[in-house]
Amino acid sequence: QVQLVESGGGLVQPGGSLRLSCTASGSIVGLKGMGWYRQAPGKQREWVASMTTGGITKYGDSMKGRVTISSASAQNAVYLQVHRVTPEDTAIYYCKFITAWGDLWGQGTQVTVSS
Q1: Per the count of CB atoms within 10 A, which of 10, 75, 84, 113 is most buried?
Q2: In degrees rounded to 5, what are phi and psi of residue 74?
Q3: What is the pLDDT of residues 44-78, one digit of tens each?
């Protein structure tokens, strides 16, 4: 089975930067797009960013202007670059691969923003 493995989370200082990675353990049949979501304690999971396999990107309002989604299609990987983080960015971040047959989710990676 194909798994999505996330990395890059951890403790970061306010105002700092972070780069999250999500890599598929194998080829994804019928891949259509990729995305990032986050879930803070006591809150609903929210959409952060997405992109199609053709490279078209979209961003949610919560982090727009501070994040960039990118991919390495040949490696079946998606990345999220985050700048100027704030304590409100503290959450578990999840990647998602969208396929013709359903969605695949990463295990989540904890991001904690604290001085």
Answers
A1: 113
A2: -65, -25
A3: 999 999 999 888 999 999 998 999 999 986 668 99
- For residue 97, give Cα distances in angstroms to 2, 17, 52, 68, 86: 11, 24, 10, 17, 27
**Bridge partners, 113 (sequence order):** 12
Burial of 15 (0-12, 13-18, 19+ CB in 10 A): exposed
Q: What angle do CA 51, 2, 68 make, to 5 degrees?
A: 25
State the pairing for strand pair 18-24/10-12. unpaired
Residues 30-35, mean pLDDT to the nearest whole number: 94
> How far is the C-alpha of 6 from the C-alpha of 20, rounded, in Å?
7
